[in-house]
Specification:
58% of the residues lie in helices and 8% in strands. The chain has 6 helices and 2 strands. The protein has a two-stranded antiparallel sheet. The protein starts with a helix and ends with a helix.
């Protein structure tokens, strides 16, 4: 840039700044924000009520909370009694048919699908732990979900 163009640019900035200052100071003090009067408590209450809100004093609110707690306690007492009386356990009973070539994994999956055990790998691990993996014989075995895992294994691996 040449010195002449730099002077022209600086002169333009000075003129723009002067015009902005003139515009700023020549306008009257007209604030764009209007002061809003703060509504009184009664006006606020009436506005909320007209919108459908319910307004309670602190004392009324505490009474409402206490009444709610009492109702909840009564409801809990009523609900506790039937829960204790209705403790029924569903027992699943099935006949597992072991065929030639089945493994303990296959039997575990069959027991899982019949809702006798929760995890077939628990069955497989227990069979291996007892050293019965090679002693699985074909046949039909009756088991139910009341049996413990060891009991079911003793029935299947007679």
């Amino acid at each position: 840039m040449s010195a002449k163009s730099m002077r022209s640019f600086a002169f333009g900035l000075m003129i723009a700044a002067c015009l902005c200052a003139i515009a700023y100071y020549s306008t009257k003090d007209q604030s764009t924000a209007k002061e809003v009067e703060k509504p009184s408590v009664e006006e606020m209450r009436n506005a909320l009520i007209s919108e459908g809100y319910v307004i309670h004093t602190e004392e009324e609110w505490r009474e409402q909370l206490a009444a709610t707690e009492k109702a909840k306690e009564k409801e809990d007492k009523v609900e506790e009694e039937p829960k204790e009386a209705v403790k029924e356990k569903i027992v699943y009973r099935t006949t597992i048919t072991v065929t030639k070539g089945m493994t303990s994994i296959d039997v575990g999956k069959a027991l899982k699908s019949a809702n006798i055990i929760k995890d077939p790998m628990d069955f497989v691990n227990e069979v291996e732990k007892q050293g019965l993996a090679n002693k699985l014989k074909p046949g039909s075995y009756e088991v139910d979900s009341n049996m413990k895992l060891k009991d079911a294994i003793s029935v299947i691996f007679k």
